[in-house]
Amino acid sequence: MKTLQGRTAVITGAGSGFGLELSRLAARAGMAVVMADVQADALARAADEVGALGAAVLPFRLDVARADEVEALGAAVRERFGAPHLVFNNAGVGAGGLIWEHSLKDWEWVLGVNLMGVAHGVRVFVPMMLEAARRDPSYEGHVVNTASMAGLLNAPNMGVYNVSKHAVVSLSETLYQDLRLVTDRIGASVLCPYFVPTGIVESERNRPADLREERRMTASQRIGVAMSAKAVSSGKVSAAEVAQKVLDAVLADRFYVYSHPHALGGVQTRLEDVMLQRNPTDPFSARPELGAQLRRELRAAEGTPDPA
Question: Which domain of life is it from (predicted)?
Answer without folding.
Answer: Bacteria
